[in-house]
Design goal:
CATH topology of the largest domain: Carbamate kinase
Radius of gyration: 24 Å
CATH architecture of the largest domain: 3-Layer(aba) Sandwich
Helix content: 25-40%
Oligomer: single chain
Number of helices: 12
Largest sheet: 9 strands, mixed
Bound molecules: adenosine-5'-diphosphate, magnesium ion
CATH superfamily of the largest domain: Acetylglutamate kinase-like
């Protein structure tokens, strides 16, 4: 059985007309001899009646001062995909094809119980296989799974976080040993920049798993990075294609698989949509600096905060966090008291922002009142709000001489102030003011991708 996983995103299923276009792609695959497993997202984006954001707002709107229980919030959010699954399966039936709708749990997707951002632990694909063997098209609800209930009752529904349907598709592809996973969306494939800013950005014919994961991590939401990682681990060909055209799309494959194909020198330009907040920790030249940094990273990991632009100097540590996590991060950091050394030699206390906050002052007073014998060191944290990040992506970018100079000159020539830079094996990123982001994407795309000045 040649199993083909086909995932359709929100805009691909947002009207009956679109759903029928999607269904025809599925039917064509079936007629071509594949056994399609269809994964669907919720119907439409913000504002649409069954879109994920609408469901969240419905619950939050009851009393904005009372945050919903994460378990119940997951139960609520999962409804969007369940509705979409039933509608898609029924659409296929009306077009003359037998289809069955499965929730994530019914499809055998088992996750941990990190509500709102669960990880897929394993998949029991027996039910899917059974239906496929009976000749049915299987439609699975994306973005969800089930986790063992903490009390051992019937399993709880969990959700996989933003872009989670891409992960569902990849994970199912791996568990079912699919011939390929196809991600259908409203653009022709992975492009050299966000088409909202660069309308004539080129569609990349082929890209490596690592690069697409980097592109996704640096802000392009066209594919979830976890989906690329899972496909890479199982070496499953991944395609990004348009629901609305018959273009070939982008093949995501291993770097070896892509050899011989003309990979562009610079793959593309990405940016983070929405603001990020840049933090500089003035730790000082103390021997415990690495230990303090480690504890900070652990804290951010436990809170599931994505970090960007990590950089170090002899006395500082800096990184950026997404704007929508800033409230949480600020709460965690401001007035935080951290013992350092084993056994503790000193205490450090973090002070966020220019003026000491009430929270900080209370903590400080408490420390003083305790009259403890350990010395207390303050770590000031500078905060830069309303900025965002623009990145250049290319394989082995960091090993190319001169690229940083050209990157900076391009931005300076355009009058864009660069607040910070960082690089990794595959990317070069800079922090700019929010108001400069579109211009930065445009000039970088023009210089590095359209002109291919660097390639020459
Ligand atoms: P879906 O609902 O199908 O999952 P998404 O909105 O998650 O769709 O992802 C597709 C969108 O990603 C496109 O409409 C496009 O605006 C955006 N995008 C951002 N950067 C890129 C890029 N480099 N290539 C392609 N699309 C991109
Ligand atoms: Mg998506």
């Amino acid at each position: 059985m040649k199993i083909l996983v086909m995932k359709f995103g929100g805009t691909s299923v947002d009207s009956q007309e679109h759903r029928e276009i999607a269904a025809r792609k599925v039917i064509r695959a079936k007629e071509d001899g594949f056994a399609p497993v269809v994964v669907v997202s919720a119907i439409g984006r913000r504002g649409a009646p069954y879109a994920t954001d609408t469901l969240i707002e419905f619950l939050r709107g009851i009393d904005p001062s009372v945050p919903p229980n994460p378990r119940e919030l997951d139960l609520m959010m999962a409804c969007g995909e369940i509705i979409s699954t039933v509608v898609m399966a029924h659409t296929l039936k009306t077009m003359g094809y037998d289809a069955v709708a499965l929730t994530g749990g019914q499809a055998g997707i088992i996750t941990d119980n990190e509500y709102g951002n669960a990880r897929v632990l394993q998949i029991h694909p027996q039910a899917i296989r059974h239906h496929l063997e009976s000749g049915r098209i299987v439609v699975v609800a994306g973005f969800q799974g089930v986790a063992e209930d903490k009390l051992g009752f019937h399993p709880d529904i969990t959700t996989l976080g933003r872009g989670g349907s891409d992960t569902t598709a990849s994970a199912l592809g791996a568990a079912l040993n699919a011939v390929a996973v196809e991600i259908y969306t409203d653009v022709d494939g992975v492009k050299t920049a966000d088409p909202d800013i660069i309308p004539d950005a080129r569609t990349l014919p082929v890209i490596s798993y690592e690069e697409v994961a980097e592109i996704a991590h640096q802000g392009a939401k066209v594919l979830h990075p976890r989906a690329a990682e899972i496909a890479m681990l199982h070496n499953i060909p991944l395609w990004v294609k348009s629901t609305f055209t018959d273009e070939t799309g982008t093949l995501v494959t291993s770097a070896e698989g892509a050899e011989g194909v003309d990979l562009p020198e610079v793959t593309g330009v990405t940016h983070i949509t929405g603001k990020i907040v840049y933090l500089v920790f003035h730790i000082g030249e103390v021997p415990e600096k690495p230990e303090i940094e480690l504890q900070l990273y652990r804290l951010m990991a436990r809170a599931d905060v994505n970090l960007y632009l990590n950089s170090y100097s002899h006395d500082t540590l800096s990184f950026a966090v997404p704007r929508d996590r800033w409230g949480l991060v600020q709460k965690l950091l401001d007035g935080l008291v951290m013992p350092v050394g084993a056994p503790p030699q000193r205490l450090v206390i973090f002070r966020v922002g220019e003026k000491p906050s009430r929270e900080y002052q209370l903590q400080k007073q408490m420390l003083d009142a305790l009259g403890n014998t350990l010395s207390v060191q303050e770590i000031a944290v500078d905060v830069l709000e309303n900025c965002t990040m623009v990145s250049l992506i290319a394989a082995k970018l960091s090993r190319r001489p001169g690229v940083m100079a050209l990157f900076l000159r391009t931005l300076y020539d355009a009058g864009i102030q660069v607040l910070q830079t960082a690089d990794s094996e595959m990317s070069l990123s800079c922090l700019v003011n929010e108001s400069d982001v579109e211009k930065a994407v445009r000039v970088l795309h023009e210089r590095f991708v359209a002109d291919r000045a660097y390639a020459q």
